Amino acid sequence: MLDLKYLRKNQEVARQKLADRGVQSDVLADLLAADQKRRDVIAKVEELKAKRNEASDKIAFAKRQKEDASAAIQEMQAVAKEIKDLDQELEGLDKVVKDQAAHLPNIAEDDVPVGPDEEANVEIRTWEPEDYQGRPLVKTEAPAWLKPHYEIGEDLGILDFERGAKVSGARFLYYVGDGARLERALYNFMLDQHHEEGYTEMITPIVVNDSAMFGTGQYPKFQDDAYRVEGLNQTYIPTAEVSLTNYYSGETIPAEDLPISITALSPSFRKEAGAAGRDTRGLIRLHQFNKVEMVKFAKPDQSDQELEKMTNNAENILQKLGLPYHVITLSTGDMGFSAAKTHDLEVWLPAQGMYREISSVSNTRDFQARRMHITYRNEDGKLELVHTLNGSGLAVGRTVAAILENYQNEDGTVTVPEVLRPYLGGQETLQATPHH
RNA sequence: GGAGCUAUGGCACAAUCUGGUACUGCAGCGGACUCGAAAUCCGUCGAGCCGUCUUAUGGCGGUGUGCGGGUUCAAAUCCCGCUAGCUCCUCCA
Asked: Residues A97, A124: one domain?
């Protein structure tokens, strides 16, 4: 949520910044008009309440003296009615203002490229492994024998989309045998890396309440994409960002503890409501997928730096796995709702001949903290909102896809990246093995 | 799932039956005493949020006794709903 006072005082800048995020200019005008009306009513009702408090004191005093106060009481009955009406009007205006404010996206930091969509994203660096060991190079044509990850996965008998669809529905799958072991090896590797980098590992609830979903910005605007638990005000998390970031909701964090870094593996559930027909095959777009998430809480003057660190933490995973990728800064039009600045990591998928998002690292500044009321006490002893950051480190299913394509061999086997071998009992290749 | 109990400042508690300035202690802050400290004494102390004036700190008003409603001139107090914690029962990996 944006700061109403900021919007009031910086209307022109805010209007432009929101326009960059695709918000029509009359949205802000409407909000501020409602806010003005709201404040007018507050002034009126508070004056009456001050009068009532004064009269109540007098009545109480009179009663103690055993005097008759019925005239004053009668007079206050009318005031009470007036207060009640105004309070009701205020409640309505409050709702309008809060609801409109809750639907506004974060505004972008000044160094974020301005543009309507992903075309305006800016590549800031690329990384490729030094030793390709005969693997297909980035931006070269893949050899004819190279299969997309879902084909090699099915051929090896380690990914079973058909039975996933049978038992659950489209965009669900079973990992089988070495597939399941590879996935497990990957997220153990990722968590171990983050542990070494100072993140505190957590296992979080994967069903959260509405206020948690509101806190990180999924609600109220994006309810359509969420798996809600029927009959309960609870939702299966679309990302552990929700459960991790809300860990401190409503709390004041001791300043000396900041920055705080936490991480968790969790399944993520998404309806992918707007993605009908896109990426219908494979591990790229599922209703349920595993993801290792990183979250940080930082002082305002630390958060820029922490965003870069977190991006590096995600890159470290890809580098150790030897997967080629590039880092892009998302444009104002392509960023997520809560983000003020986002770096995406996109991994090279040779069979598709393109980069695909495998991690998204964002600084939301105080946008989420304002919704969740997470504060710390600054040097002056004043409460101030913390900054929150989140990033994938990494999306595990997409990492499996990247390994199956980048480490695929001509004989239909897949080489296991060296760093994962200790997690697989030293196994060096994935090959078709009969089971069941 | 069922029953009972509990929820008040940073902490511990009083006021709830009987509606009328939310008590007290500890901690904190300021001061006295002291070479200094402890002890003692005096003073101060509702965090946060909202509005408004002033903007350097601040003043005034509103709100604020777990959360949301209701009754009333007035609610910590009475009524209804909810949440969390504890105890017991039930169930269970």
From this structure: no
Domain holding A30, by residue range, is 4-102
Q: Compute the distance between CA of residue A27 and CA of residue A25 in angstroms, rounded to an integer.
A: 5
Q: Does ipTM exceed 0.90?
A: no
Q: How many CA atoms lie within 13 A of A223 on its CB side?
A: 12
Work out if A383's Cβ lies within 7 angstroms of strand B: yes
Q: Are A328 and A121 in contact (CB under 8 A)?
A: yes
Spatial separation of the C-alpha atoms in residues A373 and A262, rounded to whole Å: 19
Q: Which nucleotides of B are covered by protein (CB under 7 A)?
A: 20-21, 47-52, 61-63, 69, 72-74
Alpha-carbon gap, residue A422 to A428, rounded angstroms: 10
Radius of gyration of chain A (CA): 27
Is A216 in the same domain as A284?
Answer: yes
Active site residue A392: no
Contacts 24+ apart (CB under 8 A), A79-82: A79/A48, A79/A51, A79/A52, A79/A55, A80/A52, A82/A48
Task: Answer for A63: CB within 7 Å of strand B.
Answer: yes
Pairing between strand A260-269 and A383-385?
Answer: unpaired
- State whether A93 and A128 are in the same domain: no
Q: Cβ of A25 < 7 Å from strand B?
A: no
Domain annotation covers residue A68: yes
- State whether A12 and A140 are in the same domain: no
Which of A102, A134, A158 corresponds to the end of one domain?
A102
d(CA A118, CA A319) in angstroms, rounded, equals 25
- Picking from A102, A131, A149, the residue at the C-terminal end of a domain is A102
**A355 shares its domain with A414:** yes
Report chain A (436 residues): mean pLDDT per 10 consecutive residues. 91 93 92 92 90 88 80 88 90 90 94 94 94 82 92 95 94 95 97 97 92 90 88 89 92 87 96 81 94 96 95 97 96 96 96 94 94 85 89 95 95 95 96 74
